Amino acid sequence: ISAAKIRDWDRHPDDVVVGQLLSSACYIPDAFPAALFLAWRYAGDFAAGVCANAQVGGDNCHRGTVVGSLVGASSPIPSRFVEGLQAASRVSGI
After folding, report:
1. Whole-prediction pTM value?
2. If DSSP codes are grouped into helix, strand and coil, which group holds residue 18?
3. Rounded CA gap, 80 and 87, in Å?
4. Is the backbone of residue 30 left (phi > 0), alpha (psi -120 to 50) or beta?
5. N or C terminus of the chain with fewer C-beta within 10 Å?
6. What is the mean pLDDT of the chain?
7. In three state form, how does the secondary structure of 28-39 look?
8. Angle 77-31-3 (CA atoms, 0-180°, nearest 5)?
9. pLDDT, tens digit, for every residue of 4-30?
């Protein structure tokens, strides 16, 4: 994905980028760039990134793994996303 394309996409709301400019389906030619775009747009805010991915709809579970992994690697995962999980003690503090 070129920097020029990212700048162009950044002028649009999420649901236009993922749904009109890119397909919201799981096909990798659109799904992976869409996931990278959302991870870039929401870098540093895990909750906003994974929620934005869910809100644009389509086959969001595949994009969500990429968005969650990338944004989660660069920002803390809020406790509300971990509390209640069977493995909460293993993943807290990651």
Report:
1. 0.84
2. strand
3. 14
4. alpha
5. C
6. 89
7. HHHHHHHHHHHH
8. 85
9. 888 899 999 999 999 998 888 888 888
